[in-house]
């Protein structure tokens, strides 16, 4: 399943831990606080639980948006795209 992970985190240490988590699950950074990739439902749940342990829920937020390929094909990009060299072939084909 395709997944967007988006965060707004105040502290560098917590932010870096979320970045490491996202990359550890194979997500690819597409903007400063946005990751995108392919995950199964168990991985999505694990990422959510681990993120909850890292952040302060009063001041920080992590959004995890699962998306089917059909809905992804409806996404419209306005302006500059992310660097497609950062994503895998599987994900790159979705942006063609």
Question: What would you say about this model in short?
Answer:
This protein has helices spanning 12-24, 41-54, 69-72, 89-94; strands at 2-8, 28-31, 34-38, 61-67. It is an alpha+beta fold. Helix 1 runs antiparallel to helix 2.
Structure notes:
The protein has 96 residues and is an alpha+beta fold. It has one domain (2-94): 2-Layer Sandwich (Alpha-Beta Plaits), CATH 3.30.70. It is built from 4 helices and 4 strands. The chain has helices at residues 12-24, 41-54, 69-72, 89-94; strands spanning 2-8, 28-31, 34-38, 61-67. Strands 2-3-1-4 form a 4-stranded antiparallel beta sheet. Helix 1 (12-24) runs antiparallel to helix 2. The chain is globular. 20% of the residues are buried.
Write the layout of secondary structure elements.
Elements (H helix, E strand, L loop, with lengths): L1 E7 L3 H13 L3 E4 L2 E5 L2 H14 L6 E7 L1 H4 L16 H6 L2
Antiparallel strand pairs: 1-3, 1-4, 2-3
Helix pairs in contact: 1-2
What is the overall number of helices? Answer: 4
Assigned CATH architecture:
2-Layer Sandwich
Oligomer: single chain
CATH class: Alpha Beta
Mean pLDDT: 87
Beta-strand share of residues? 15-25%
Q: Give the total of beta strands.
A: 4
